[in-house]
Request: fold
Amino acid sequence: MRLRVAVVGAGFIGQLHARVISESPLAKLAAIVDIDREARETVASHFGVDSYPSVDSICEDPEVDATIVAVPDTAHEEPATRLLQAGKAVLLEKPMAHSLDAARRIAAVARSSGSRLMVGHILRFDPRYAGAASQVAAGVLGQPLHVTAGRFTLRAVGTRMAGRSSPCFYLGIHDIDAMQWVTGRRITRLYARAVGTVSDSSIPPTDDAIFATCELEGGVVGNLQFGWTLPNNFPSGINARLEVVGTMGSVAVDTLDHGLRVVGVAGMTLPDGLHWPETNQRITGDLADEVNHFVLSVCNDQDFLVPVADAVRNVAVNDAIIRSITSNVPETVDVVAD
Reply:
């Protein structure tokens, strides 16, 4: 029997999740939930499923086994906690929450309800980042000494996201997770500064780029850098990197070129070949692997590759970054219990 999954959120990412579920031999798309009537009905009609304005309708629905929450970053807590309390397994898009307190509350509800919760840190399913983590874990690099992780995207993204998210949560959460997961060491203290001069002056002020020098367990030093400062004609739309240097070697991830180049009258583009490419009329890549891992783990009662405590720690690092930008002094990352 296939797992019956409802998708909460009918935006771009929600639609991707819905398509992956609809194409999966392991799951069945059960419903679309969104407060925007036109959006939810359009997406639901496309997939031939019911649509609802709130999670209330699926909390008590025995025909829904699990849910994917893909609403805007700032709105994660309410639907996630209500669904967990209703006994539904939840795949929650990253970041887990927009505040450390909210992330802790979601984790507490997951524990008290006994419901399954996984946060969708997609780089855990990227073969390049997973390969780097395997090399570090196998001791190929010796003892890690320093690590750099970051990503930059287009200025247009900053214009679109202003007032709704920040580089910390929209971009940096990926690299915060990657830095701690790949090295196997937690960030304990950091100093962060922000740049905010690129965004369109007609929209609310926002940080455009953030840089943080980090102390990790075991004396490892790290540098995080992320922002939406690239020119809008940047060929790949994003430039992300990771490098770990150890006592015996190094490993680096460079995501700029996925091996496909398209040149036309408007210039050159470097299309995505890993996160959610379409291959033979199906969504494949990291996102499909993430969703199918969630489905299989729920069906087989197996552990998720992304522990809840790791997702909370990532938000704790963001919390320290925000505090450091405000205070202009180094800040300690709040301890997060396993």
User: Anything to note?
Assistant: The domain at 124-275+312-332 is CATH 3.30.360.10 (Dihydrodipicolinate Reductase; domain 2). The chain has two domains: 3-120+292-301, 124-275+312-332. The longest strand covers residues 144-154.
